[in-house]
Task: structure prediction
Amino acid sequence: MSEEQIKNSWTEHSRSLEKEFDARIARDEKIEPKDWMPEKYRQTHIRQMSQHAHSEIVGMLPEGNWITRAPSLRRKVALLAKVQDEAGHGLYLYSATETLGISRDEMYEQLHTGKAKYSSIFNYPTLTWADMGAIGWLVDGAAIINQVPLCNTSYGPYARAMIRVCKEESFHQRQGYEIMMKLANGTPEQKEMAQDALNRWWWPSLMMLGPTDDKSVHTAQSMKWKLKRKTNDELRQQFIDQTVPQADLIGLTIPDPDLKWNEERGSYDFGEIDWDEFWQVVKGHGPMNKARMKARVDAWERGEWVRNAAMAHAEKKANRKQKQAV
Ligand code: FAQ
Result:
């Protein structure tokens, strides 16, 4: 066979693999780690899934800040469990991403050098106890809206990880809402604290669902591959429609003078989002970007001796086993 013929037959082979892959996506079949997949599909999943994992891990920091200051033992236990759950989510997601051929060390390196993103929402400070309520209610609330469709995403390991994650996130959302409910029905000072937290977290929570569809570079392709099942704007609208009545119920006011029910559309119209703020935060200039990354990198460096000790122990054990076998 000539070089030209080999090239042609290879191109034909790739086309038929791609056609079969598209047909599997159309049939809603799950794509598994050892299946053939287009390189771009693999890379897009590594990008989204690793950023999702990083968000879970960095997302522990704002709430971790309040574990020692929770107002009661019950609140402390619930917050501790929630933060621990987020660590678990990060670990499932790192494991699921590793099935695409990237190592955990590479992913950490991308996070620590600023090459990989994590969610903008975790670059805001947690100033009062009410922020624990606002994060659970709004941030986990927005996360669930985004993640329920991901339970049905086309890549098997991601979809399966999301099922467990969503169950835990719904507990997080309720514990946050319960904190807000208690504060909103408490003393005037407590209600004011809850309202202040809502004022500060509302807009960043809307931004968290990503840029508007016309500015979202990945949505069109990700929808075709069924990685994303809903667009950023669809998710944002769903989040607003779900959350506004919850705020009404506990007597808090959404900080948006343009928010109003649109009878014709059957959903809320809302005000202009400050996308300049969003991009500033994404590019590393949010109020807490530097502190978050420093905490993360410091923890990684401080943990080096533990990793080294674990490796040395594993090596010793393996050597002993080998000697015994001989
Ligand atoms: N922050 O074209 P698109 C949680 C970037 S988990 C930073 O629309 P895509 C649980 C985007 O990466 C929260 N960057 O992108 C918890 C892209 O840049 P790139 C995380 C953002 O991927 C609660 C560029 O902008 N959840 O909260 C953000 O189609 C409490 C263009 O954007 C997930 O990761 C942002 N907010 O849609 C934990 C869910 N938005 O990569 C602790 C999975 C966009 O080209 C405490 N991810 N960018 O450099 C997704 O669903 C999607 O990735 C979106 C973005 C919807 C986030």
Summary: The radius of gyration is 23 Å. The mean pLDDT is 96. DSSP finds 13 helices and two strands in the chain.
